[in-house]
Amino acid sequence: MFWRVWADAKETYPGITMAVECGWPVEARFLNACIDDDRGERNWSGPYPMHEIASIMLAAGMDPMATYERLPKELPAHEPLADARQSARLLATALKSLVNDESSNPDRKQP
């Protein structure tokens, strides 16, 4: 089921990328298992690049290992959809922080 949704998203949104909270071990092993289910078809169609939200949070000065308060729609904890909602919000917060930092510090070198 997941792989079909991912394949449809890649077709619908060319250039789509995947973001994961912390890619190892759960997400990496899950994606590996999905590819192993049909290696001939899926071997080169996994998410690449796969962006790690924890690394973006660290770059924005946030502690990726901290426990962050959840909004009502991000509950209960450890429920996949609720966790994804919180991860998306934390990613947006980190990216906004990085953009704001860039606009307030125009001399900062671009990677």
Order of helices and strands: HEHHEHH
Largest pleated sheet:
2 strands, parallel
Helix content: 40-55%
Strand order of the largest sheet: 1-2
User: How much of the sequence is in beta strands?
Assistant: 5-15%
What is the average of the pLDDT values? 92
Total domains: 1
What would you call the structural class? Answer: mainly alpha
Unreliable sequence segments: none
Number of strands: 2
Q: What does this 3D model show about the protein?
A:
This protein has helices at 2-12, 23-36, 39-42, 53-59, 80-104; strands at residues 18-20, 50-52. α4 packs parallel to α5. It has 111 residues and is mainly alpha-helical. The longest helix has 25 residues, at 80-104. The chain has a two-stranded parallel sheet. It has one domain.
Structure at a glance:
The protein is 55% helix and 5% strand. By secondary structure, the protein is mostly helical.
Q: Could you give the topology of this structure?
A:
Elements: H1 2-12, E1 18-20, H2 23-36, H3 39-42, E2 50-52, H4 53-59, H5 80-104
Parallel strand pairs: 1-2
How would you describe this structure in keywords?
mainly alpha, two-stranded parallel ribbon, globular, 111 residues
